[in-house]
Specification:
The complex is a heterodimer. By secondary structure, chain A is mostly helical. Chain A is 70% helix and 1% strand. Chain A has 22 helices and two strands. In chain A, strands 1-2 form a two-stranded antiparallel sheet. In chain A, helix 11 crosses helix 20, helix 12 packs parallel to helix 14 and helix 20 packs across helix 21. The longest helix of chain A is centred in the first third of the chain and has 31 residues. Chain A is globular. Chain B is α/β, with parallel strands linked by helices. In chain B, the strands form two sheets. Chain B has a six-stranded mixed sheet with strand order 6-7-8-3-9-10, with helices on both faces. Chain B has a four-stranded antiparallel sheet with strand order 2-1-4-5, covered by helices on one side. Chain B is globular. Chain B contains eleven helices and ten strands. Classes of the chains: A mainly alpha, B alpha/beta. The interface between A and B is large, with 40 and 48 residues.
């Protein structure tokens, strides 16, 4: 049982590493890549073993076998991947024509050899053995620490332990970073060049988000809030400063998709209304701001006194128009459920795109809307990747707060009840019409916010920007991240939207990658990486009391 | 005592099938009444007509003198009717406490922008709701299980939670659809006491569908028997037990005539 679970979870980690390898993380992190990867194995093993251990406490030997399996499976698998790439590169085949980031340099870093050796096809066995050992070690440390910290009678069950846990959450990213720096044996080469600045920034970001997301879930709700606020504030301020221009641009689009993901999460994750035409509202938002602000706007050009609105006026207007469109398109589908709803909404997405394409006199048709002005704040032009990222993060924080508050309210409970059982929800006195329209409306309004910002970012927008694949992307990132959870949306967006941006040279493959990833998720982890958790709220239920009822039932 | 619920000549058809036929029926305020009958007699269909899941083709249903047939389900709930289901229909992935909080929906007033702004009224109402839900959880005997997902609760607890959720809307009339189905003798006895407690302490009128005759005969002041959608008998326990038509409906003609023979 332990071995089987360990095997599956090892494969999950392997998939994550394969992805990290494809986006060129080894070259990016440098010589310490192996330590970095081993640390990630550790974090994953910690989370996986802790979950199993909670369900059913395990003995020392069981945990040992379990975490060793996780480490070995991911290690051997990744060694195999690396071996294949090394052989191909040794024979002079240019793998990077397909996978842009798989260069001999990356293989050299992973195996601890020189680029020349890899090119000449020298044996990489020694490096691979080292890799497997590192991975197994990471798995063991992560897995066994569960016994030390989280188990019954473990350190973290005590009062001091709980405090410790709080601080390790904050400290963990820094700890990882310290190991990372020490391993390089050089302390401060990072701020010198543009590229190095990016490395430093993204490393911190990866570690921050990763360790924060995983360890947050173990904490008490009261503490969680403070730490989340702290982390978010820190991240919002630092992130755009630490990343380089390219990374800012990629993160900007990721953030826009996070805003949309959070919106769709209300419709699909909370209320359970499967909407496949979400791109419609993204387009509405983008065109609302674009048409109202662009000097080349097709129906405003003849209005002499109207010089176009600024971003700060256009954004709320886009928001309102988005909400209105959501309610408008939601009304005819109120009676539809499940598959039927999905198909009709799929149609809506296309209808909006076709309208935009064909209403030439109003939208510009295939010519698009051009020269959309950039947002400005106190005289600063925010029309650069860094400024857009700041704006997108501000929107993200705003949308998150609104969503969390709605979720913990009467309306939020009604949404979840609707998802669980529509008939019974109605029998609870819930007015289905109003809560469905509120779900469609707020989801659409958030998408419109994302759309307006997207228009400002792109400067020129065209109907092709709003095709079906946007809907699919947003839905996939929710499914992969974990339906109904905001952390899941963040994780999903980083994984899915970052991917094609980085693998731009082979973007045709990304649909295949999506497909494979979705199928794999459905088999291994159908609830997503970070599924929503029902919050513990009964006042009398103490932390130490473990479930009275068997949760396996 | 006055009638809280009155159904007059209610007929519900599904295509050619007449599920409930010309049914006239009354529930007295603060009584425990019961509808019994063989499987497929139209009992649950009648419940569905009362709660607005179905609209009867003919007839009038009055609740506190007001016609409610054809109203939306949620409007009827707001008027003060709550129900449970034959096969338990909890919000399986929500916690027990959240199930009860959803049940309180019609008694809460806050609207969405209040919760976004986090107004004082909203926060106070939420705190009040949480306290009340916890209390209610205790009342139905599920103290300490509030944070469990409903689907993880044992069967008996799920039945109780469903009743708790129905009570959360502070109903005047509670419809229970086979509340003791699948319970053992001990659990059945506990639940029967609990149903009596609901009426005696909270003054809630109770109408139940039940197959367990010990429950029906032991608690119900008025029993109505349905067969093929029509009322075949009505009265107190003793009358129903002796009624030959009822025995025939349950056991067949032979059994009924055998009983008459025995009586002779």
């Amino acid at each position: 049982m332990n071995i089987k679970r360990g095997f599956q979870q090892g494969l999950v980690i392997l998939a994550v590493f394969f992805y990290l390898d494809l986006i060129g993380l080894p070259t990016f992190v440098g010589e310490s890549a192996l330590v970095f990867f081993a640390a990630i194995v550790g974090v994953f093993a910690l989370s996986f073993v802790r979950r199993e251990h909670r369900k059913e406490p395990k003995s020392f030997v069981q945990v040992l076998v379990y975490s060793l399996t996780i480490g070995l499976v991911s290690g051997l698998g990744f060694a195999l991947v690396t071996f294949i790439f090394a052989r191909l590169q040794g024979q002079g085949i240019r793998v990077n024509e397909v996978f842009a980031e798989i260069k001999p340099e990356s293989t050299a870093i992973l195996t601890g050899m020189s680029v020349a050796d890899i090119r000449s096809g020298a044996s990489v066995l020694q490096g691979l053995i080292k890799m497997v050992l590192y991975f197994a070690g990471g798995g063991l440390v992560g897995g066994l620490s569960v016994l030390l910290f989280s188990g019954r009678g473990g350190v973290l069950q005590s009062e001091t332990g709980a405090k410790m846990k709080t601080w390790t959450t904050v400290g963990l990213p820094f700890l990882f970073y310290a190991i990372f720096v020490l391993n390089r044996q050089v302390a401060l080469p990072f701020f010198s060049t543009e590229g190095a600045r990016g490395n430093f920034g993204l490393t911190i970001i990866f570690l921050f988000i990763g360790s924060a997301l995983f360890s947050l879930r173990a904490m008490k709700p009261g503490r969680q809030k403070l730490i989340v606020v702290l982390l978010v504030v820190l991240l919002v301020i630092l992130l755009p400063q630490l990343a380089n221009t390219l990374q800012n641009a990629v993160l900007g689009i990721v953030m826009i998709f996070i805003v949309m993901g959070i919106g769709l999460n209300i419709v699909v994750g909370y209320a359970g209304l499967l909407d496949l035409g979400y791109v419609a509202f993204f387009a509405v938002g983008a065109y609302a701001y674009g048409l109202l602000s662009s000097p080349s706007s097709y129906f405003l050009v003849n209005v002499p006194w109207f010089g176009g609105v600024s971003f700060w006026v256009g954004l709320p207007i886009a928001f309102l128009i988005g909400a209105f469109t959501g309610v408008l398109l939601g009304t005819p589908v109120l009676k539809l459920r499940g598959d039927y709803l999905a198909i009709v909404t799929l149609g809506f997405g296309e209808i909006i795109r076709l309208l935009v394409l064909n209403l030439r006199d109003y939208t510009g048709g295939p010519g698009g809307v051009l020269k959309i002005p950039s947002p400005e704040l106190f005289g600063y032009n925010l029309g650069n990747p860094q400024g857009i990222l700041y704006l997108a993060m501000a929107l993200g924080v705003l949308v998150t707060i609104v969503t969390l508050r709605l979720h913990d309210s009467r309306l939020g409970r009604a949404w979840v009840a609707l998802r669980e059982d529509e008939d019974v929800a109605e029998a609870m006195g819930i007015n289905l019409v109003s809560i469905k329209l509120l779900a469609f409306g707020s989801g659409a309004a958030f998408a419109a916010l994302g759309g307006a910002l997207y228009a400002a970012r792109q400067v020129n927008i065209f109907p092709d920007n709003f095709a079906l694949d946007v809907s699919i992307n947003v839905l996939s990132l929710i499914i992969i991240g974990g339906i109904g959870s905001i952390e899941g949306v963040v994780l999903g967006a980083i994984a899915l939207i970052g991917l094609p941006e980085i693998l731009r040279s082979v973007s045709e493959f990304r649909i295949i990658a999506f497909g494979a990833l979705l199928v794999m998720m459905m088999i291994i982890q159908p609830e997503g990486f970070l599924p929503s958790q029902r919050r513990a709220r009964e006042l009398h239920a103490g932390e130490a009391n473990n479930p009275v009822v068997d949760t396996e039932a | 005592m006055a009638a809280i619920l009155r159904a007059e000549n209610v007929t519900k058809r599904f295509g050619g099938l007449v599920a409930v036929s010309d049914f006239t029926f009354e529930v007295k305020k603060e009584s425990i009444s019961s509808i019994i009958g063989p499987n497929g007699a139209g009992k649950t269909t009648f419940f569905n007509c009362i709660t607005g899941f179905y609209e009867p083709e003919e007839g009038v249903i009055r609740f506190n003198g007001q016609e409610i047939q054809g109203m939306r389900t949620d409007e009827i709930t707001h008027k003060g009717i709550a129900r449970t289901y034959q096969n338990i229909r909890l919000f399986a992935n929500m916690t027990a406490l959240e199930n009860i909080l959803v049940g309180m929906h019609p008694r809460l007033k806050s609207i969405w922008f209040e919760s976004i702004l986090g107004t004082k009224r909203f926060r106070e109402e939420e705190r009040m709701a949480l306290d009340k839900a916890t209390e209610l959880l205790k009342f139905v005997g599920l103290q300490g299980l509030g944070d469990q997902a409903a689907r993880n609760l044992p069967y008996g607890a799920q039945r109780r939670l469903e009743i708790g959720r129905a009570l959360a809307s502070e109903p005047q009339l509670l419809l229970l659809d086979e509340p003791t189905a699948g319970m053992n003798t001990q659990e059945t006895a506990e639940l029967t006491d609990f149903i009596r407690l609901l009426r005696d302490e909270l003054g809630i009128t109770i109408l139940l569908i039940e197959h367990d005759m010990r429950v029906v005969m032991g608690t119900c002041e008025m029993i109505t028997v349905l067969d093929y959608g029509s009322k075949i008998a009505e009265g107190v326990a003793e009358e129903i037990q002796k009624n030959p038509e009822v025995i025939e409906a349950y056991l067949g003609r032979g059994a009924a005539s055998g009983l008459e023979l025995n009586a002779q």
